[in-house]
Amino acid sequence: MPLLTLHNQLTTYLVIAALLFGMGVYGLITRRTLIGMLIAAELLLAGASINFMAFNRFTAPDPALGQIFTLFIMAIAAAEAAIGLSIVVAFYRHLKSIETADAAHLKG
Question: For the residues of 87-103, what is the DSSP string, one character each?
């Protein structure tokens, strides 16, 4: 398989999306800081977006459907980043730490 024709195959996009999704899951499991978890969640959403766009390009009868889903994912990612970062800032102001182990102090 020549290297120049890799962009014309569905499996190339699916492998890249699976790698991004796997890195996101690994990051969510192993990170102890809230910022690292937010970045890992963004990787999860990027992997899902690539899947939607790849299936849109190669298999969908309606070419706009995958793009619409990807735009919704981008909007959700932006909202998640904004709300998540504001929660992290409030958490840091209260406890002077962004470690997830310190969140046990917030139980009411």
Answer: HHHHHHHHHS--BGGGG
The 3-state secondary structure of 39-59, one letter per residue: HHHHHHHHHHHHHHHHHHHHC
Please state, for a pLDDT cut of 70, what percent of the chain lies above it: 93
Q: Which two tokens stand for residue 24?
A: 């996101």
User: Where residue 64 falls among pLDDT bands split at 50, 70, 90?
Assistant: confident
DSSP string, 66-90: HHHHHHHHHHHHHHHHHHHHHHHHH
pLDDT-based confidence at residue 1 (cuts at 50, 70, 90): low
Structure-token pair, residue 39: 């970045």
Q: Using CA atoms, how far apart are residues 87 and 80, in angstroms rounded to an integer?
A: 10
Tokens describing residue 27: 């990051």
State how far the Cα of 18 lies from the Cα of 51, in Å rounded to an integer: 9
